[in-house]
Amino acid sequence: MTPNIISDSVPHLRAAASADLPAVSELLTASSLPLDGVAEALPTFVLAEVDGAVIGVAGLEVCCDNALLRSVAVRQEWRSHGVGRALVTRVISDAEARGIHALYLLTTTADRYFPSFGFTQITRDQAPEDVRATAEFRSACPASATVMVRACRTSTEAA
């Protein structure tokens, strides 16, 4: 199921369900991304699907007033087709709807990708304690990972 073969297929975004854990785990493993904390955070993940197959994922791990954007992965054959951008945009929107103050992320490969969404680089110790307490921050991502932050516009600010 590649974009060239199924040119009429449009990815559909939806919330993840517990039954999606195997497909999400497979996609994250194929993308060399950590699985720590995925099962617990899965209810706040967003999936991209085509014809019932999961082709992309992005997660929101809520940490009190802040959240972690995590586990952004797209199947190789669907990269550069806007799937990742749609997933990240949806997670940002979900975070803002929840009243999240700031969205953080850790990356070892995409530090040039996320500034287009308003993320800026910070040092690890600038991340708040609730974010530093996540499994991804504590142990899943290497200490060399780039830490980035984006302020969220809450629903009261949008009014």
Description:
- It contains six helices and seven strands, in the order βααβββαββααβα.
- By secondary structure, the chain is of the alpha+beta class.
- It has a single domain, classed as Aminopeptidase (3-Layer(aba) Sandwich), CATH 3.40.630.30.
- It starts with 11 loop residues before the first strand and ends with a helix.
- The model has no long low-confidence stretch (mean pLDDT 88).
Topology:
Elements: E1 12-15, H1 21-30, H2 38-41, E2 45-50, E3 53-63, E4 66-74, H3 83-97, E5 102-107, E6 120-122, H4 129-132, H5 135-140, E7 146-151, H6 155-158
Parallel strand pairs: 4-5
Antiparallel strand pairs: 1-2, 2-3, 3-4, 5-7, 6-7
Q: In percent, how helical is the residue content?
A: 25-40%
Number of helices: 6
The domain count comes to 1
CATH class wording: Alpha Beta
Spell out the CATH superfamily: Gcn5-related N-acetyltransferase (GNAT)
Summarize the structure.
With 159 residues, the protein is an alpha+beta fold.
What tags apply to this protein structure?
6 helices; Aminopeptidase; seven-stranded mixed β-sheet; 159 residues; 7 strands; alpha+beta
